[in-house]
Amino acid sequence: MYTIFLSKSVEKFLDKHPEIVEAFDESASLIALNPKNSWVDVKKMIWSTDIYRLRIGKYRFLYRIIEEKIVIYFFDAGSRGDIYK
């Protein structure tokens, strides 16, 4: 099982959007069991070898899988239109 770490910006985003915290926690738990999971809406970013996107409704969370430390690091969160800029 992988360990989940959140950046300060992701923590602030979740504080501002309490309606998706439960869905995020459930999805993050499933990702921690299997990072390339098909049970949640995850896609690999084509512009990077180790960055993935988690979709929860109209929001997106970007994360990196650090295999050597068995860590999943969520580093950015935002709405669909803003996250990829």
Output the helix-strand order. Answer: EHHEEEEH
Q: Which percent range describes the beta-strand content?
A: 35-45%
Quaternary structure of the protein: single chain
Shape: globular
CATH topology: YaeB-like fold
Structural class estimated from helices and strands = alpha+beta
Number of structural domains: 1
Task: Provide a descriptive summary of the structure in words.
With 85 residues, this protein is an alpha+beta fold. The chain is 31% helix and 35% strand. It has 3 helices and 5 strands; from the N terminus they run βααββββα. It is globular. The N and C termini lie far apart (31 Å). The mean pLDDT is 89.
A few lines on this structure:
The chain has 85 residues and is an alpha+beta fold. Helices cover 31% and strands 35% of the residues.
What characteristics describe this protein?
85 residues, alpha+beta, YaeB-like fold, globular
Q: What order do the helices and strands come in, and which of them pair?
A:
Layout: E1 3-6, H1 8-16, H2 21-33, E2 42-44, E3 51-56, E4 59-66, E5 71-79, H3 80-83
Parallel strand pairs: 1-5
Antiparallel strand pairs: 2-3, 3-4, 4-5
